[in-house]
Design brief:
Blueprint lengths: L2 E2 L5 E2 L16 H7 L5 E5 L2 E6 L2 E7 L9 E4 L6 H4 L7 E2 L11 E4 L5 H13 L10 H37 L4 H9 L11
Antiparallel strand pairs: 1-2, 3-4, 4-5, 5-6, 6-8, 7-8
């Protein structure tokens, strides 16, 4: 209940400042298995993204709908699907990411070998398997920034060189300054440009 005092201030109800109940971590056993690597987690798309060093390796999902995409999402690419399939026979594309084959693959929570497959994925991540894990786009861009800056700088320099003759031509057409007129008069030459006043 909100209590009102004699002033215009409104005292909040006691339960407003109560700690928010944390969502349970989906498939927490996966984080336990990756604990030796010191994984970091971040919320992503209402799920929990798992990072090891600079790579995103998994997303843990347990949402009401669509339930068929619940489970452990593997951060991989299409080129690795065939090589991963013998280790993960139930692996498939993620439906919420669109129709067709998706780079990310899901180990579905409703598969009979789900926990086994998820722990196998953790073992591969721990072994440094290059088929699982991606450096997120923004971090890749930051890593490429010096090279991109060098390319942009070179392009700007090239453009400046092309503009330089145009600047010289403009300088030739520019009216003479008072100093130039005075200098020409002292040397006995004629000044071709007149200064406007």
């Amino acid at each position: 209940m909100i209590k009102r005092s004699g002033s215009s201030r409104v005292a909040p109800a006691d339960d407003v400042f109560a700690a928010r109940k944390r969502k349970p971590v989906p498939h927490e056993f996966v984080l336990d298995a990756l604990a030796p690597l010191g994984p970091e987690t971040r919320p992503m798309f209402g799920c929990l993204a798992v990072y090891v060093e600079d790579k995103i390796v998994l997303i843990l999902r347990d949402k009401p709908a669509p339930a068929q995409d619940n489970g452990v999402w593997l951060a991989t690419t299409e080129e690795h699907h065939a090589a991963l399939r013998p280790d993960f026979p139930s692996m498939r594309s993620i439906e919420v990411l669109g129709s067709g084959v998706t780079g990310w693959q899901v180990l579905p929570a409703d598969a009979p070998d789900f926990e086994e497959a998820a722990l196998r994925a953790c073992a591969l991540i721990e072994a440094g398997d290059p088929r699982i894990g991606k450096v997120p786009g923004e971090r890749r861009k930051r890593g490429e920034a010096p090279a991109k800056r060098a390319v942009k700088k070179a392009a700007a320099k090239k453009a400046a060189v092309k503009k330089a003759p145009a600047k010289k031509a403009a300088a030739k057409k520019a009216p003479a300054t008072k100093a130039a007129v005075t200098s020409a008069a002292k040397s006995g030459g004629k000044a071709t440009a007149k200064r406007r006043s």
